[in-house]
Amino acid sequence: PPLPPGSFVVLMLTADLYPQDLSWVLLYRESNATTWDTRKSCVANGCELVSEQTTNYSYYALVGEYQWVISDSHGDGICCNNNGEGQYAIVINGVAVSADTFNGAGVSVLFEVGQPLTPPPSPPPSPSPPSP
């Protein structure tokens, strides 16, 4: 059966020098809904993160609003100084819609998955010229 309306989403997380401090949760709500539902989550060592390497989490996401919450249990973020060079990115259908890093206990990033684009209908065939 065909997939319901949505898009392919990749959550990319590059850990700093302390990947064991990182966890995240992906929340979802349908358009006009007031409550968030947990779609995916990853807690500390279960995230399979490696120091200063990027881990990609790929999903088919239904149409709606999403919130990706990344937390650092040590509270020092994933950027700079003595922490290494961590970062995150959100890619929807091959296009990066958000990319950054953070200092402190965490970051929350909102993004939306809209209706997929459909190709325009094909034009009708040209009529044949009349025969003599």
Quick synopsis:
This protein has strands at 6-14, 22-29, 37-42, 54-62, 64-72, 87-92, 95-100, 106-113. By secondary structure, it is mainly beta.
- The H-and-E topology, N to C, reads as EEEEEEEE
Strand content: over 45%
What's the N-to-C terminus distance? 50 Å
Q: Strands of the biggest beta sheet: in what spatial order?
A: 4-1-6-7
Task: Report on this structure.
- The protein is an all-beta fold and 132 residues long.
- The protein has no helices and eight strands.
- The protein has strands at residues 6-14, 22-29, 37-42, 54-62, 64-72, 87-92, 95-100, 106-113.
- Strands 4-1-6-7 form a four-stranded antiparallel β-sheet, with no helix packed on it. It has a four-stranded antiparallel β-sheet with strand order 3-2-5-8, with no helix packed on it.
- Strand 2 and strand 3 (37-42) form a beta hairpin.
- The protein is elongated and about 85 Å long.
- 19% of the residues are buried.
